[in-house]
Write a structure and sequence with these properties.
By secondary structure, the chain is mostly helical. The protein contains 14 helices and no strands.
Length: about 220
Amino acid sequence: MHPFIEPVYHAFTKEADPSNASSMKAYMLNKFEFWGIKTVVRDQIVKGYLKDHTLPDNMSLEEVIKELWEQPQREMQYFAIDLFVAHKKLWSKSSIKLIEHCITNKSWWDTVDGIASDWLGAYFKLFSEQTFLITSQWNKSNNIWLQRSSILFQKSYKKNTDTALLASHILHCKDSKEFFIRKAIGWALREYSKTNPEWVITFVSNNKLSPLSEKEALKRISN
């Protein structure tokens, strides 16, 4: 195990709670193992550690993230998400390869949405020339998690949202039968409705979305 990981690994094992682990595993449909560490405790451990410990370069960052992603306990992937955010100064244009690796491995809504929230928005602001090419490739791929990411990456952009790109990515996937795609469409539109409800109302009115997507999109407006 990489020396950078060991202190957090040992701290996590000390906080393991089998009863919590069982319920967490069930909540994730038994797809992953858990130590059963509550979020507030995990955050305290990780934030405390990252306050005083940093990695020296992008190569080390990628090595540690990939090793964390290989660990069986889901808390280690959550640690990886926090770790990458904390080392934003080490990100490079090529970091998108690592990001895609994490989206497409051990994929489920928890890590994919964590990446969308904490990595993608910031990455595409730093390397905006990558935005159209990469997200379009993801949107047209056969991987539902890449498609979901292409729809959600702008959800924190507010008035800086590229509505043409958002619309294009949504329309390409709007007939998908995948729950996680339909939910992502609604979520992305709902977030943008906080900034521009009129645009969202018009978009939903002009395009036949799934009932789930439409319901989610208009939730804040309707209420």
